[in-house]
Design brief:
This protein is an alpha+beta fold. The protein has one domain: 2-Layer Sandwich (HIT family, subunit A). 25% of the residues lie in helices and 22% in strands. It is built from three helices and five strands, in the order H-E-E-E-H-E-H-E. It has a five-stranded antiparallel sheet, covered by helices on one side. The longest helix is centred in the middle third of the chain and has 17 residues. The chain is globular, with a radius of gyration of 13 Å. The protein binds adenosine monophosphate and zinc ion (ZN).
Protein backbone atom coordinates (compact mmCIF):
# COMPACT_ATOMS: atom_id res chain seq x y z
CA UNK A 1 0.00 0.00 0.00
CA UNK A 2 1.55 3.27 -1.08
CA UNK A 3 0.27 5.37 1.82
CA UNK A 4 1.22 2.88 4.56
CA UNK A 5 4.17 3.90 6.77
CA UNK A 6 5.39 0.36 7.36
CA UNK A 7 5.03 -0.63 3.68
CA UNK A 8 7.39 2.26 2.96
CA UNK A 9 9.92 0.63 5.28
CA UNK A 10 9.59 -2.63 3.36
CA UNK A 11 10.23 -0.88 0.02
CA UNK A 12 13.07 1.21 1.47
CA UNK A 13 11.33 4.56 0.88
CA UNK A 14 11.80 5.09 4.63
CA UNK A 15 14.84 3.48 6.24
CA UNK A 16 14.28 2.20 9.78
CA UNK A 17 16.93 0.75 12.11
CA UNK A 18 16.60 -2.82 10.88
CA UNK A 19 17.56 -5.69 13.21
CA UNK A 20 16.23 -8.66 11.22
CA UNK A 21 15.05 -9.38 7.71
CA UNK A 22 14.10 -12.49 5.74
CA UNK A 23 11.85 -13.20 2.77
CA UNK A 24 8.59 -12.52 4.61
CA UNK A 25 9.45 -10.53 7.73
CA UNK A 26 11.13 -7.22 8.57
CA UNK A 27 12.00 -6.04 12.10
CA UNK A 28 13.24 -2.64 13.20
CA UNK A 29 13.63 -0.54 16.36
CA UNK A 30 10.61 1.46 17.49
CA UNK A 31 11.14 5.21 17.08
CA UNK A 32 9.57 5.86 20.51
CA UNK A 33 10.84 2.97 22.65
CA UNK A 34 8.83 1.95 25.71
CA UNK A 35 11.61 -0.27 27.06
CA UNK A 36 15.40 -0.54 26.63
CA UNK A 37 14.69 -2.95 23.77
CA UNK A 38 11.57 -2.17 21.71
CA UNK A 39 11.43 -3.76 18.28
CA UNK A 40 8.56 -3.98 15.79
CA UNK A 41 8.23 -7.18 13.76
CA UNK A 42 6.12 -6.84 10.61
CA UNK A 43 5.06 -8.96 7.64
CA UNK A 44 6.52 -7.64 4.38
CA UNK A 45 3.12 -7.98 2.77
CA UNK A 46 0.50 -5.47 3.88
CA UNK A 47 -1.82 -6.95 6.52
CA UNK A 48 -3.80 -4.19 8.23
CA UNK A 49 -4.61 -5.76 11.60
CA UNK A 50 -4.39 -9.06 13.47
CA UNK A 51 -8.01 -9.64 12.39
CA UNK A 52 -6.79 -9.80 8.80
CA UNK A 53 -4.04 -12.40 9.35
CA UNK A 54 -5.22 -15.58 7.62
CA UNK A 55 -1.95 -17.20 6.53
CA UNK A 56 -0.74 -19.79 9.09
CA UNK A 57 2.74 -19.89 7.58
CA UNK A 58 3.09 -16.12 7.86
CA UNK A 59 1.77 -16.19 11.44
CA UNK A 60 4.45 -18.76 12.24
CA UNK A 61 7.13 -16.74 10.49
CA UNK A 62 6.26 -13.67 12.55
CA UNK A 63 6.31 -15.49 15.88
CA UNK A 64 9.50 -17.43 15.11
CA UNK A 65 11.26 -14.29 13.89
CA UNK A 66 10.24 -12.51 17.08
CA UNK A 67 11.69 -15.15 19.36
CA UNK A 68 14.85 -15.36 17.25
CA UNK A 69 15.29 -11.60 17.68
CA UNK A 70 14.62 -11.90 21.43
CA UNK A 71 17.50 -14.39 21.59
CA UNK A 72 19.67 -12.20 19.34
CA UNK A 73 19.03 -9.22 21.64
CA UNK A 74 19.95 -11.27 24.73
CA UNK A 75 16.43 -11.15 26.19
CA UNK A 76 15.47 -14.81 26.15
CA UNK A 77 16.75 -15.90 29.54
CA UNK A 78 15.57 -12.92 31.60
CA UNK A 79 12.30 -12.65 29.69
CA UNK A 80 10.46 -10.25 27.45
CA UNK A 81 6.99 -9.32 26.26
CA UNK A 82 5.38 -9.68 22.84
CA UNK A 83 2.34 -7.50 22.22
CA UNK A 84 -0.07 -6.94 19.34
CA UNK A 85 -2.45 -3.98 19.45
CA UNK A 86 -5.57 -4.60 17.34
CA UNK A 87 -7.87 -1.81 16.21
CA UNK A 88 -9.02 1.20 18.23
CA UNK A 89 -9.66 -0.29 21.65
CA UNK A 90 -6.48 -2.34 21.34
CA UNK A 91 -4.53 0.88 20.96
CA UNK A 92 -3.43 0.33 17.36
CA UNK A 93 -2.08 3.47 15.69
CA UNK A 94 -0.31 2.11 12.60
CA UNK A 95 -2.58 -0.07 10.46
CA UNK A 96 0.05 -2.50 9.22
CA UNK A 97 0.25 -5.54 11.51
CA UNK A 98 3.20 -5.45 13.89
CA UNK A 99 4.37 -7.39 16.92
CA UNK A 100 5.96 -5.30 19.64
CA UNK A 101 8.97 -7.04 21.23
CA UNK A 102 9.73 -5.34 24.55
CA UNK A 103 12.51 -6.20 26.95
CA UNK A 104 15.39 -5.05 29.11
CA UNK A 105 13.26 -4.05 32.08
CA UNK A 106 10.70 -5.60 34.43
CA UNK A 107 7.27 -5.64 32.78
CA UNK A 108 4.15 -5.04 34.85
CA UNK A 109 0.63 -6.41 34.66
CA UNK A 110 -2.05 -5.37 33.87
CA UNK A 111 -0.98 -3.27 30.90
CA UNK A 112 -2.57 0.16 30.46
P1 LIG B 1 0.69 0.64 17.59
O1 LIG B 1 0.15 1.65 18.57
O2 LIG B 1 0.60 -0.76 18.12
O3 LIG B 1 0.06 0.79 16.23
O4 LIG B 1 2.23 0.92 17.48
C1 LIG B 1 2.80 1.73 16.50
C2 LIG B 1 4.25 1.87 16.86
O5 LIG B 1 4.94 2.38 15.73
C3 LIG B 1 4.50 2.86 18.01
O6 LIG B 1 5.18 2.18 19.06
C4 LIG B 1 5.36 3.93 17.37
O7 LIG B 1 6.34 4.46 18.24
C5 LIG B 1 5.98 3.18 16.19
N1 LIG B 1 6.39 4.02 15.09
C6 LIG B 1 5.70 5.02 14.49
N2 LIG B 1 6.42 5.57 13.50
C7 LIG B 1 7.61 4.91 13.47
C8 LIG B 1 8.79 5.02 12.69
N3 LIG B 1 8.91 5.92 11.70
N4 LIG B 1 9.83 4.17 12.94
C9 LIG B 1 9.74 3.26 13.93
N5 LIG B 1 8.65 3.11 14.71
C10 LIG B 1 7.59 3.92 14.49
ZN1 LIG C 1 1.45 -1.63 4.97
Amino acid sequence: MTDCLFCKMVTGAIKPDVVFEDANVLAFRDINPQAPVHILVIPKQHVATLNDLDNPALAGDLVLATLAIAKQEGLAEDGYRVNINCNKKGGQEVYHLHLHLLGGRQMTWPPG
